[in-house]
Amino acid sequence: MSENMNYKINFDEIASDFKYKEGGGLTHSQGNRYKLFPFVANDTTLFTDFSGVVGAFSRLISGKSLNESFDSEKFLENVADKIGEYEGDNSKETFRDIIRTMFLEEEKLVDFNIKTMNYIDSTSADEKIAKFIYSNMFSEDIKELVAKYYESNEENILYKIVLESLPELKSKKVNISEGVKYVEYVKELFIKDLTFIIQNEDLYKNSLKRVLEYYYMFYISQLTLKLSKFEKVDLNSVEPLYYTLSWESTSKNRTAYKFGWDLLKNSVSEIFAHAVTLELLNHHNLDKQIGYLDLFEIFNIMDEELAKDEINKLLESYKRQIIDVDWSGIKYSNKDSGNEAFNLVYKLFESVSYQFDNSARSRANEAYKNWYIKFVQANFGKRRGALGYNLNLTEEDIILMTKLCINNNEKLKLNTLFKELELRGMYFDRDSKEKIVQLYEKLSLLEKKSDSGDAQYVRSIL
């Protein structure tokens, strides 16, 4: 980082982007200068099912676009017409019924081939989430590998006819800017696991939805936990989150109670404030997106008084525009970063957070975080009576994650497998680990040379 680097805020652009009004008032903007989350402060289109995200993501990585929705009747007619002549009055209708039975389920196309995943309909909200996953976790480095499998020829004659009867997919160049570089270790693992599953078509078709759901959950959970540490963040290590298993009983004394959902929920409660704070701070003269740690490092090499002056002017400008909040009630924390300019960043964040809690904008704040909270509760949460929610994984999840961890190996040491699960953000206490070992034993996957974890192996499930 250049020692001559000076950080200067563009106040005119902030006034424009945040729609400053004369006499006070603004509109909170986020996700333009600093693309943290794919959420909006409105949960009317909130969804928890990733079926449409699968279709949108599949089209993004294969460079295709779907210009018309799948029409089952039109599809059946196209397949029937490919055959040509029929014997007897009812033979064409009988053939259509066979095709319907084999390739349609509730009038939707069955994923019998990797290419058919591109025909899954998506809403604009689905597409936004897919683009978020693509920009933050996909890599152009595996584009050729993906194309190899999406463009492979179908040898089954009937499947080939059916594929030729589907609407034409247009080639589309993907032009999505790369996301923020905050949790690159998640991206590296996603690429590794996506590369693995795409080489086995059945595994890819059957597991892509759950893999996308998990990595979306994993990425945002890690990002929120990192943001809560501001400049003291370690960008290279996984933040532990403890899960319970759907088939085990739990209690308040379990590690997952305190260091699972409760830990995550507390950090998620501040994501809108972080998004707005970093959006404000990214209206600057430097040609890159900067996070808290970047800013701290910049402040440590530039003139501290200049840096203090910039952040102080930003803080006062922001508070001046918020005219429906009594600022006399705010109590700032005594956090000390060791840099007086960065200490003002704490105050800016706390001011953004305070006005959300003490104005009519609390509803927008609630809606923003609900995009993630409702998703996690629906897909990775289990209500445990009076204990509330725990982060939760099912037997099917453990089997899938075990496949990903073992990858192309024949087997993996049990201790190594648990470390691989932890690299992917899945931590388990001793009781949960015992239940997982019992599951491996039930599935005849465990090789025991002794009771030691280093002398026990888990065989590949593929």
Q: What would the keywords be for this entry?
A:
462 residues; mainly alpha; 3-stranded mixed β-sheet; 18 helices; 52% helix; globular
Proportion of strand residues: 5-15%
In angstroms, what is the radius of gyration? 26 Å
- In spatial order, strands of the major sheet run 5-7-6
User: By helix and strand content, what is the structural category?
Assistant: mainly alpha
How many H/I helices? 18
Please count the beta strands (DSSP E, at least 2 residues each).
Answer: 10
Distance between the termini: 47 Å
Helix content estimate: 40-55%
Residue windows where pLDDT falls under 50 for at least 5 positions: none
Query: How would a textbook summarize the main sheet?
Result: 3 strands, mixed
The shape, in one word, is globular
Following the backbone from N to C, one meets helices and strands in this order, namely HHEHHEEHHHEHHEHHHHHHEEHEHHEE
Task: Round the mean pLDDT to the nearest integer and report it.
Answer: 93
Short description:
This protein is mainly alpha-helical and 462 residues long. It is 52% helix and 6% strand.
Description:
- It is a single chain.
- The protein has helices spanning 11-17, 51-62, 72-83, 91-103, 124-137, 143-150, 157-164, 184-198, 201-227, 255-268, 271-281, 292-301, 304-321, 340-357, 362-380, 395-406, 414-423, 430-442, and strands at 64-65, 104-105, 108-109, 170-171, 244-245, 381-383, 389-393, 411-413, 446-448, 456-459.
- It is mainly alpha-helical and 462 residues long.
- The chain has a three-stranded mixed beta sheet.
- Strand 2 and strand 3 (108-109) form a beta hairpin.
- The longest helix is centred in the middle third of the chain and has 27 residues, at 201-227.
